[in-house]
Structure formats: C-alpha cells, structure tokens
Amino acid sequence: MRKELKELHHRLGVTMIYVTHDQIEALTLADRIVVMKDGYVQQIATPEELYARPNNLFVANFIGTPPMNFFHAKIDSEGFVWIGAVKIDISSTKSYDALKKKGYFGKEITLGVRPEHITVDRPMNNNMDKGHLSKVELYELLGSDALVHFTIGNKNVVSKVNSRVILHRGEEAYFDFDVSHLYYFDKETEVCIYE
Q1: Can you list the domains of the chain with their CATH numbers?
Q2: What is the C-alpha to C-alpha distance for residues 144 and 124, in angstroms, rounded to an integer?
Q3: For residue 129, what pLDDT is reported?
Q4: Which DSSP string do the residues of the chain spell out, in sequence order?
Q5: What is the chain's mean pLDDT, rounded?
Q6: Which of 4, 86, 111, 169 is most deeply packed, by most CB within 10 A?
Q7: Average pLDDT of 126-145?
Q8: What pLDDT is recorded for position 127?
C-alpha cells in the first residue's frame, strides 16, 4: 500500500497530506514531515533531517526503529561525558567545542545514541582496552541485522549490529559509542544542543 501511495503521489504531482501515527509510513511516504505532540508542532523537516537532526527529545524518541537510547549524563569540567561510571571522550568531536561554548561543561544533560551507533563485540586480546564491559541480556536475530540488549548501570540499552556478530545471553561483551553520532539534549528544556 505504501508503494502504491508513493507512486500515486509521484504520478499526480500534487501536494498530499497524509496523517499517520506510524513513523515508518511517515518516513517512507513523505517529502516533508510535521511531527506533532499534544496539538503542537515539534519539528517540520525532511525524513532525513528528522532522523539526523531531531529538534528535541520527543522527535528523537519518535523517529527511528528501535528508538534512540537515552541516558542521564554529566559533562565534567574537562569535557568528558559520564554515564554513571562510563566515561566517554568527546574531545575529538565538533560537539566538544559547541558544548563548551554553550556552557554545558560541569552540567547534567540527556545523552542520546541510536542503536546502530553502539558497537558490541566479544572480548578478545585486541579489544580488551576498547569500550566498556557489560553482559548480553538478549540477542535478537533480524536477518542481516541483530539487536543486542544489555545494561549500563541500571539502564536498558539496545544496540543494532551486523548479524555476523553472534552473542549469547549472559555472555560478556564490550560496547562502545560512535562519538561522532551522539545527541545532547538540555536536561530542563529537552531541546537538542547543536554545534
């Protein structure tokens, strides 16, 4: 049905308004999407823009399957991001300067990371110093991809990995974040902090 609607839209070349609560329908059918919450517009953008640059926590959580992982985090005075005892070095990213300039060093934030931007691998000699150790709670094979569920502190986390990475429940694994794809949200306003 989505394919037929897309072809009809292309053939007629007219503006069409399609209302849906299904984000997959919105992402696949739309040229532009209006995300609303409680009757208020949260963001108007292309599907690609909504996914890559959500304006706020609501949009970031709504767009993406599985949804973005969120953490209560703190940026220390040196610019390291801490999720509990997990330390993330963002000094090599564009966000580092933006967060410093906007006065977020020494403050609590909400950190977001999409499942596909979390790497998970078995402990081996060549990666023992890379990443953070956790235990696999669930491994869901989806075909070419797999979802790996684990915890950081008491927070449930989902990572989307290539299905060639086969892990088992209870197995220890290293996880790490792609620091170039982290999202920073103001703890109070829930607005995304952009560089």
Answers
A1: 1-63 (3.40.50.300), 115-179 (2.40.50.140)
A2: 23
A3: 60
A4: -HHHHHHHHHHHT-------S-HHHHHHH-SSEEEEETTEEEEEE-HHHHHHS-SBHHHHHHSSSSPPEEEEEEE-TTSEEEETTEEEE-TTSHHHHHHHHTT-TTSEEEEEE-GGGEEEE---GGGTTSSEEEE--EEEE-SSEEEEEEEETTEEEEEEEETTS---TT-EEEEEE-GGGEEEEETTT-BB---
A5: 91
A6: 111
A7: 84
A8: 55
Please report, for residues 155, 160, 171, the alpha-carbon distance to residue 164 in angstroms, rounded to integers and kept in the order given.
26, 12, 16
CA distance 47 to 68: 16
* pLDDT value at 121 more than 90: no
Encoded tokens for 94: 């564009």
